[in-house]
Amino acid sequence: MPKNIIDIKSICHTFSDGYVGIQNISVSISQGEFIILAGKNGSGKTTFLRHLNGLLLPDSGQIIVNGHDVSKHLIQTRKTVGMVFQDADTQIVGDTVFDEVAFGLENLKVKRQKINEKVSLILKDLNLFHLKNRSPFTLSGGEKRKLAIAGILVMNPELIMFDEPFSNLDHPGTIQVLSTIIDLNRSGHTIIIATHDVETIICEATRIIIMKDGRIKEDGNPLDIINRLESYGVREPCSSKLGLGIKPYG
Ligand SMILES: Nc1ncnc2c1ncn2[C@@H]1O[C@H](COP(=O)(O)OP(=O)(O)OP(=O)(O)O)[C@@H](O)[C@H]1O
Ligand SMILES: [Mg+2]
After folding, report:
1. CA of 21 to the centre of ligand 1 (A)
2. Are 16 and 210 in contact (CB under 8 A)?
């Protein structure tokens, strides 16, 4: 049995203006899962993800990551759980692609030679090495998304959360990011993808969690839930609508 990376017990989160973002969520996530987190705009997906790496803390309830309470082990949590944000531009801190990926390791005071080795390896893996001296702001949307993934990967988190990883990507960009995510899962990383675009990723997912009004409404095998997606404001994949089951993207 794979171990649980995350155990969430009855968490609630109310924002400072009184809006209830998360209501009574309990869920466990095991090592190696590939989870789609779906739900219409404002259903609470990003708010939920931000709790998993301690960017937001619950008002009540508990989040356990690898046996430790997130609120008491923030640094360890962020080493275990990485998040690739939807808007890659807002995360850029480095003058060059290389510096951007090196940033997290520099913060951890890793030795320069080790940083150079790790960053070069990740950039080569993601086919970004030829861009290493470019300003991140000059990259295309797909390249920026891959750079954001590189910045998280270099820290080698066990669980990687992607918030809308396919938004604004064209077909080749979607394929590049999709294959990167699939490779990460195959090499042992646990994956959670918050997306409206279930069709792109459904074939890879082992589980779908659907949120509505800050609550989890469905949680299970994608094939069991696929026909109910539209009742939660999420588009059902075309092939499924036509009675043809699910098909890989491409
Ligand atoms: N800081 C905040 N203060 C008050 N309300 C907030 C705050 N952040 C988010 N919300 C509200 O919480 C709800 C859930 O937001 P969230 O960003 O988690 O939704 P989402 O499912 O990720 O939506 P989308 O699909 O548009 O990305 C929304 O109604 C949003 O307006
Ligand atoms: Mg969101």
Report:
1. 7
2. no
Closest ligand by atom to 51 CA: 1
Q: How far is CA 68 from CA 14, 51, 63, 81, 158, in A?
A: 23, 14, 8, 13, 15
Mean pLDDT by 10-residue block, N- to C-terminus, for the chain (250 residues)?
92 97 97 96 96 95 96 92 82 89 90 96 91 94 88 93 89 85 94 91 93 97 90 85 73
The domains located in the chain, with CATH, are 4-241 (3.40.50.300)
In this structure, are strands 34-38 and 207-212 parallel, antiparallel, or unpaired?
Answer: parallel
What atom of ligand 1 comes closest to residue 48's alpha carbon? Answer: 18
Residue 18 Cβ < 6 Å to ligand 1: no
